[in-house]
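Q: What would this chain look like folded?
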Amino acid sequence: QVQLVESGGGLVQAGGSLRLSCTASGNTFSINVRGWYRQAPGKQRELVASITSDGSTNYPDSVKGRFTLFRDNAKNTVLQMDSLKPEDTAVYYCHARTLVRGLEYTYWGQGTQVTVSS
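A: My prediction, written as C-alpha cells:
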C-alpha cells in the first residue's frame, strides 16, 4: 500500500506560478512511476506530468515548457507550474504506480484545486 498526500494549489492570476508537492508513504520502494493528473469540470482526467524511477519525464504538449516535475527527495515529488493559463484550472491529483510480483497497482492523492484567473 502507498499513501499520497498533496499540498499546494490555490488561486493565481494568468501568467503566474504555483508549486504542488506530493509526499508518498508506505511501500514506496515498489513505486516505479509517479506523476500528476488533472481533471476539469466536465472533462476526463488527463496526464500532466510523470517521472519514472530512472528519472525519465513525460509531459503532454499542453504543458510542455511550462510545467516541470522533479523529485525533491526519495518520497517527495514537486510539480512546478509556470506561465499558468485559465485552461490549467482543474483539480490536480498526485499519482503513483507500483509493481509488486509482476502486478501493477495505481494510487491517487485526494486532489488539490488549482484555479487560474484571467
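The mean pLDDT is 95.
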